[in-house]
Amino acid sequence: AQKITQTQPGMFVQEKEAVTLDCTYDTSDQSYGLFWYKQPSSGEMIFLIYQGSYDEQNATEGRYSLNFQKARKSANLVISASQLGDSAMYFCAMRETNTGNQFYFGTGTSLTVIP
Amino acid sequence: DAGVIQSPRHEVTEMGQEVTLRCKPISGHNSLFWYRQTMMRGLELLIYFNNNVPIDDSGMPEDRFSAKMPNASFSTLKIQPSEPRDSAVYFCASSPGTGAGTDTQYFGPGTRLTVL
User: Fold this and answer.
1) Residue from the list B56, B91, B104 with its beta carbon closest to the beta carbon of A47
2) In the prediction, which pLDDT does B100 show?
3) Which of A2, A14, A54, A76 is deepest in the core (most CB within 10 A)?
4) What mean pLDDT, rounded, does chain A reach?
């Protein structure tokens, strides 16, 4: 079974609007971390935001927030006030604390911001 | 602080040649990862090291691929002999490796490999 599932291959959003990128995960561990990365067309992988499985509050970093629903095993990324520079691939990832330092990545969602 | 450093940034070689990719992790990080990214297969973990020791190399596609980490500040990924299907972007990433849930991976800029 896939550890991380991103079901939206591509998404479009109007500039200045908010957008939600979906991510579901599969783990039987109680302790894990969830991460989002951005990969613009230039190719680098940029860390955006982290959510711990024991964190009671949703993580936020500037215009990025992570909508963490533990019971549903979802960790959706919300980008508010989209900007043209947000156009990129977005990857969701998980690290299970008890199984070493390996990360599991999803297949990514391509986001295009329309002016 | 310097991030993860990879060299070369671009490599074009002919089939059958040996290719060596290099990575310098962030100072103080104990875990190092090699990934390969292609359009067809996405981002694949090839191998990762903890404290310079290879932990999981199950993602290494064939015996043509080998990776070493002789010390905490340097790792290589070697392909010998190279084949056109090895063409991809190869990323190196490092993380503190503390075992804490917040352990975040930081990626290098990648090496774009083209095998003709």
Assistant:
1) B104
2) 67
3) A76
4) 94
